[in-house]
Design brief:
Low-confidence stretches: none
Strand content: under 5%
Radius of gyration: 28 Å
Number of helices: 9
Distance between the termini: 102 Å
Number of strands: 0
Order of helices and strands: HHHHHHHHH
Shape: elongated
Structural class: mainly alpha
Helix content: over 70%
CATH class of one domain: Mainly Alpha
CATH topology of one domain: Four Helix Bundle (Hemerythrin (Met), subunit A)
Mean pLDDT: 78
CATH superfamily of one domain: NADH-ubiquinone/plastoquinone oxidoreductase chain 6, subunit NuoJ
Length: about 200
């Protein structure tokens, strides 16, 4: 009973913080609400005995990705009026997508609510990290490799899109530097000494 109460409390905090992410007027506040949502999701995973996923969520998303998001949001000069212009135009689609997501969550909760099932007790030496790794690299090895290739292609595409020639940029050519000779670079000037 206690776990269920904590789960629903964390779920409510997660929903409110997720809603605050998309309704916050200040982008920095939205990023901070997203950090709260990640922490709450990791707490829910801890309740579900998925410690590895909870720690991974905190370390990867909160520790690395969200810090990067915060730096980018604070460094950019965002025109808030232009951001808010398309809000009412995109609202109907957003309401439909949000209603579908809520319907999916309600369906999942109702299925578990009517089952009257108690959570299984785990063995003394059970490790969910070992079980996750065994399933990931045996049953889902092909999907894992496909996801890795897709991420690699995305990284290469992002690098290719950002590397473009600019007229005002200066670059060094190592082959020209290696071929340089002293006679081309240094000129000795003989000047007579000044007389007082």
């Amino acid at each position: 009973m206690y776990e269920a109460a904590v789960f629903y409390a964390f779920g409510a905090i997660l929903l409110v913080s997720g809603l605050a992410v998309i309704t916050a007027r200040n982008p920095v506040h939205g990023a901070l609400f997203l950090v709260l949502a990640f922490f709450t999701a990791s707490a829910i995973w801890l309740l579900l005995r998925a410690e590895f996923l909870a720690i991974t969520l905190v370390v990867v998303y909160v520790g690395a990705v969200m810090v990067l998001f915060l730096f980018v949001v604070m460094m950019l000069d965002i025109n808030l009026e232009r951001v808010r212009e398309g809000f009412w135009r995109n609202l109907p689609l957003a309401v439909v997508v949000g209603a579908l997501m809520v319907a999916e969550m309600v369906a999942v909760f109702l299925r578990d609510f009517f089952k009257d099932q108690k959570p299984k007790d785990v063995a003394a030496g059970y490790s969910n990290t070992r079980a996750l790794g065994r399933i990931l690299y045996t049953d889902y090895a092909y999907a894992f490799e496909v996801a890795a290739v897709i991420l690699l292609v995305a990284i290469v595409a992002a690098i290719a899109l950002t590397l473009r020639k600019r007229k005002d940029s200066r670059a060094q050519d190592p082959s020209e530097q290696v071929r340089a000779r002293r006679e081309e670079r240094v000129r000795l000037v003989s000047m007579p000494a000044e007389k007082e």
